[in-house]
Amino acid sequence: MRLSVFIALLIAYVVGCMAAAFVAVWAIEHIVGDLGPDVSTIVFAIIVFGLVTQVMRVLQPLMLRSHATQHARSVQLVTAARASAAELPQWSNRGELEAALRGAGLAEWAPRLADLARHCILLVPGPIAEDVTPIGACRLGGQPDMPADVDWPLRPPFQPRRRLVAGPPPGHILLGRYHWLHRLFRSRQWKQVVQRWERSHQVEAEVLNREWPLSFVAQVDFAELRAVCALDDFPATGRLLFFCDGFDWPWGEAEDQARARVIFTHQPVERLERKPVPPQFNEPVARELMPRGWAFKPRILRPTAWLLPPHAAFITQHNWPGWSDAQHDAYRHFWERLYTQYPDMFGHGEAVHQVGGTAWSIQDPVEAECARFAGDPPERADGWQLVLQIDSDIEVGMEWGDVGRLYVCACKEDVVAGSFDRCWTVMQCY
């Protein structure tokens, strides 16, 4: 069943429930007399809740069956990918990529997909280690290698200032299905939850309402990348350092851009120094708000060149006419085979750090989102280029939303000019 039809039927059922509840309340009042507005509202809500609950009991097995079918389909794809992973050839140009796509069963779609392929650099995660990382080398987290005269970037206090007063705690999450009983009788557990909830808001406001250092996310050495592959329009030398708020992430709006910063420097290695972590990160209030810490563990990144077609989600997002379920499955199979053959590089499709190429968007296409947030018309979306994509890495302490990704994009003319201070940052998650 199509999602739109399912939603329409669900809305129709809810409206029907409300109509039935209204008739029931009218009948009760006709029999026993006027109930008053408060009692009538309560009776109406109870009836609607009961009817909606009943349909959810019917739909739950159907939803579980649908999820089980989708899971079985995914398992079949992964199994088939593992069985044929050795058959997937490595390619070095569009012709070889087109042949690989044809071999994956994509036939007439292979030329179009190969034409959309872009050269990029995958930053393959290495071991977690600070002391063995050379100054200026590609790296996640740790301490940034910056010129001595460049200060650690800060984000300004939030405007307007965050209020200290917290709303009611989400009892159904913190205390389970019987949270209303705890709230009704003001149990000890409820009082503890309220205290922790109010304290968390006070701590959050204390951090957000003051100037605060951004967390160091990654640094990229373009000379190191150039030795692997010369990306069009990207500089041959220099280093890009990326910082981001580790607590309140930049979702893409213009006001969010203060919570991310890109620094680009041409200073040679001998003029760089490993900056110490800001003392604010060790304050008690900081540790209370972010128990896992504001500074991420360092992880070495190894650049690897690829010519990649758009990710499987790209096709779904653009809704290509004529793209059937069979072709969608074949393309997913192609990517599963790639993940299986090169698990260190692609992290099974779940941990991809990348420079250049096309973004692995989780929601709407990232380049188009940046254009929209920056105020560019839709036709200008092709003028935006992914500069850096950083995935969640739980081991080093990075989790962007619900295991999401950070995307740093820029206008292509800014990339050519090396004006990375004009980058735009967007976060997407599942």
CATH topology of the largest domain: Hypothetical protein YwqG fold
C-alpha Rg (nearest Å): 26 Å
Q: Using the coordinates above, name the CATH class of the largest domain.
A: Mainly Beta
Mean pLDDT: 84
Strand content: 15-25%
Largest sheet: 10 strands, antiparallel
Gross geometry: globular
What topology, given as strand order, has the largest sheet? 8-7-6-2-10-1-11-12-13-14
Count all strands and give the number: 14
Helix content range = 40-55%
Which architecture of the largest domain per CATH?
Roll
Report the total helices: 14
Indicate the structural class: alpha+beta
Unreliable runs, pLDDT <50, ≥5 residues? 81-86
Spatial gap, N to C terminus: 23 Å
Number of domains: 3
- Kindly report the name of the CATH homologous superfamily of the largest domain: YwqG-like
What are the secondary-structure elements, in order, as H or E? HHHHEEEEHHHEEHEEEHEHHHEHEEHE
